[in-house]
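Predict structure. Chain length: 222.
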Amino acid sequence: MSNQNYPDLFEGHFTTAKDAAAPKDNEGVAASSEAPQSSRATSHFYKTAFLTFFKIGAFTLGGGYAMIPIIESEVVEKKKWIAKEEFLDLLAIAQSCPGVFAINISTFIGYKMRKLRGALVTALATALPSFLIILCIAMFFHQFMYIGWVRDMFNGIRPAVVALIAVPTFNLAKSAKINIVNCWIPIGGALLIYALHVNPVFIILAAGVGGYIYGRFLKPTE
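Prediction complete.
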């Protein structure tokens, strides 16, 4: 990933013209002054990444797919940590892997940014809010499970969750350049999953194989 996308995270990694012109006996001093700046930039990134994904995990209802527009807004549009195309690729990989989708996508983004430590920070930040909330609910579940206003609140949340899932679906379709020629692929896949209960993993694998065959053998002949 290019360093141009992270001007605030890589300060101190570059030698200024003034440092380059400094006498050779001062090179050790210049290098030692850059080290604390680099350490502070790294610490700043970990703090920012943890708070960002903690907020995503805390304010997302409806499962991992409802996180997609929030993650895209924070990571792609505001922070510009990864490009839109890379985000779409990470979504496809996260969906293809076993496990919780939200943890998968946050882990991939963290690893993309800062390798293993970044993956640990983003995965922990995403899972921690849900863990704490579910723990509190489990502790006091019997006290409020029959409260009318709590039940009514969740009945109102459910339709909003549908919108949270529908919006990233349309955005992904637009980014994936779905048109009249290839619209049969998502429609057919949805019907196979809904009507025939085909495992989504097989749909993804079949689409991947089909894309490879098309790009490798059919597209060059067009």
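Summary: The chain has a mean pLDDT of 76.
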